[in-house]
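As noted in the main text, all predictions were made from sequence alone. Below is one such record, for Oligosaccharyl transferase stt3 subunit.
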Amino acid sequence: MAKKVFGLTTVDQTSLLRIAILGLISLVAIGSRLYSVIRFESVIHEFDPWFNYRTTRYLVDNGFDKFWNWFDETAWYPLGRVVGGTLYPGIMVTSATIYNALHFVNIPVDIRNVCVFLAPAFSALTAIATYHLGKEVKNATAGLLAAAFIGVAPGYISRSVAGSYDNEGIAIFLLVFTFFLWLRSVRLGSALYAALTAISYFYMVSAWGGYVFIINLVPLHVFALLLMGRYSNRLYVAYSTFYAIGTLASMQIPFVGFQPTFTSEHMAALGTFGLIQLVAFAHFARTLIPAQQFKILLRGAIATLCVVGLGGLVLLTMSGVIAPWTGRFYSLWDTAYAKIHIPIIASVSEHQPTPWPNFFFDLNMLIWLLPAGIYFSFRELSDNHVFLILYSLFASYFAGVMVRLILTLTPIVCVMAGIALANVFEIYLNLRDTKAIAVADTGADAPTAGKPGKPAPAKSPAETIDAKDASSVSSVSEKFVHSSPAFKRFYAYFPKIVVMANFLYFLCMFQWHSSWITSSAYSSPSVVLASRAPDGSQHIIDDFREAYYWLRMNTKPDAKVLSWWDYGYQLAGMADRTTLVDNNTWNNTHIATVGKILASDEDTAYDLARHHDVDYVLVVFGGMLGYSGDDINKFLWMIRIAQGVYPDGFKEEDFYNAKGEYAIGDSASPTMRKSLMHKLCYYRFGDVMGPQGFDRVRKQKLPSSVTLDNFEEAYTTENWMVRIYKVKDLDNLGRDHHAVSAFEGPLYKKASY
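Prediction:
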């Protein structure tokens, strides 16, 4: 009988220990994501999070009805944007709900802090969901290991640090939790769990466009089981319930609407739903029709369905009833498709194919445990393990095609690594089931062959000679072993100690690697940069917020600001000014127009800017500090996007010099030197850097002369990273203007924090 501790049975002690471990994992998951707040401050990161924060603040201030019907006149000027019908509202509603709940219990927290800390809080929930998923497919040990891995894995931390207020912050939790509920519903054949799966899926649909991964992977799992002859009533109940409730629920999101009924991304789910109904009917008909007749009927039905189904799908797609795959999804199958046909998608860095080092950077040792987990899943090929294998294969492929999708690969890698290590630990941490230990305790010789209790078979002469040689070589050590039972026990434990010591080392190195990557690579907000001086001291570069604050304080509230689409959300959120384009990218023509203005000569750009009521032009320039993410480095993408809409205006080749180089100095092509982008970036820069100055990003000598006639410099930040120009009025053309720089004028003092 097991001994009780504090009145708790062994089962209760184990459960309490698991809860404690999960609690510690959750704390580590949250704590490892707080570097950015500790080193900088509680601030929203990146670009898209600023739109999410701005809309969340609008929801909190104005209520759900106004939020749902909000038409934002300050975005995409002069078109505007119907916000409620063009976003996934899940993250905004979640934050607003938490904010209202905290205020209801008299905890006065600011909505910005709720947004900043939302992703770390949900990372703890993700760890708990991953534990349940690992436990569902293997055991509690695998679940705890998987939870520990995903709590610190850089592949997930990259999108869930404090301040990273993006859809993925809650979506990965929903992804893992939905898959756990799905596998539980398949194992039990439970309509209740299937309905919960649908509800979790609906929450996922409201939060992130990555819900398409769920609605394709789940049908693929069902289809694979049908092909393997694993149809069951459990599978029928689970999928039918999930698809019916989940599809109807997802259609309640305005941005999704009726897409599940007519877009190619959802046709696999619809087709699988129809197929499983037919398979269920076939199993029912088999009980009523003689076997021979049933085979003939089944073959004819399968052939007819294949021809009719495939023909109908092709016909409906060609006729436009079923919308074809979007360009974003085509780029997952053909990596060159976006660059050729949709450069605006290819221009985004996170849409590029994944370099091999990124897998080791974001997953470290987990990447080589993934194949081991797949192997162990094949050994125990249950319905749930089929799902894990499919998830692993497809997520690995998509992660290789698009660097952003390492995010969806990370959960299954953590689960598979947990399964692999759980199997290893079952063998090497089992210290009670070793025959050699019993030998060490009793001092008896262990049988070497035959069944227990029977003598070993006689050895041949050759075997006897080999045994004598081996005995003579190890006679001293053999005597020592026989003389020490404690050494026998150590000798029996030694292989296990070596293996476990190695894995302990790998686990410690994984934790160290994850903490270092999180601290150095994923905890710096793009809106606030930091550099190190030669003496090791940190220097904060706050040019972005400085520029946005200047716009907010020194321009009219209805001023229109033109910039490349990367900065639209930040301009709207921090400067509170009207923008022509932002990060939504829904209107390729509008973005191409901005690219055309920046790529045109000054006179043409001025006419276009006046035509679009532009008051200010903002460019990001890193030539002084060496900031490589500036607009000059992005300029070729602006040209490609503009060229796709305005092919007669200019060509990309015009911006290369006679040697085919992308140059910025006196050796640059005439088209490049005349472009508005080139002039706005390098205007007066040579005066600051001197005659021998050079661009610290391009490592090229500066142009000798840059003049402006139709635009006047309004403000340049302290480190020259953001430059703002005013579009001159018609009556001011030709006058000599001298702009205020952060180095010389009082505006910097006015704009400081």
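The first strand starts at residue 71 and ends at 72. The chain has 35 helices and twelve strands. These features were considered when defining construct boundaries for the mutagenesis experiments described in Section 2.9.
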